[in-house]
Write a structure and sequence with these properties.
It contains 18 helices and no strands. By secondary structure, the chain is an all-alpha fold. The chain folds into two domains: 151 residues, no CATH class; 111 residues.
Length: 293
Amino acid sequence: MRTLSLMTVLVAQVALARGAVEITLTPADDAALRQHIAAAKKSAPQAFTAVQAVRAQMAAIDAKKRGRFAPVTPRLNAIPDATWALAEALAVEGALDDALPRSAQVAWQTGLLEALGARRDGKTEAVLVAALDGATATEVLRSAADGLGRLGTDGAAAALVRSASQRSGAARDAVLAGMGSCRRLVVADYLARQLAVSTAEKEQLALIKALSVIGNEWALETPAGAPVKAEVPQLRAIAAGALVKRFSESSGNVRQQAQDAILIVNAPETKLLLAQARAKDPAAVDALLAKTR
């Protein structure tokens, strides 16, 4: 990796504070990335032009936003053959102009991460793992977890569990909330174990959200639902077991979110699990049983 001057380091620190992602690759991964980019520029140059066009419009896109951040992901998703154009924008070109507001920077980074992950190209694993390791803004961190999770590879699953285990507070919650997109047993097991012992409401809500995504009945039936189809029944069963337990032991918003997640997962085991938990709160369990199919 090249040596950075003090000024470059200071600029990088400012960019990170504004939501950019620090991408650090091994020499081998960096060389492989640049080879893929070079090849893609020959086969699909229009994709690079299109990604750059979105980048150039970020000031205008941000100015017209209606919420905290402009939705950039749909624009990037619509660009054909853009896997390596997205990877280049994320890992090589880096941050937007420092003069742009933080909201533009975050929207751009989250858009790149989500769109790159949506391509589900295992060859981008090193870039997405590096993004997960280098992200600082919680919004970007969540998108990094989501994007990496969509690959569904063994490496992606291991990196997500490692990242969640090593982080704390809001950063950990962001990883937990995003990693449900990785529909693998190792991730489901980890999320379920964490929900069983979690005491902080924000963490519980992040875990519930992730389990609702990982065990989503409808999503798991789609072609891209789970990379290992044989794991699907166990994914739903693990999610349902953890969610029913949290539902039966909680109240307020946590119970409500757990209930909604239980209905989204709709595992075959749900009614039996609820019947077993009925003694703790018969009225609440009966009301939920009435909503299950």
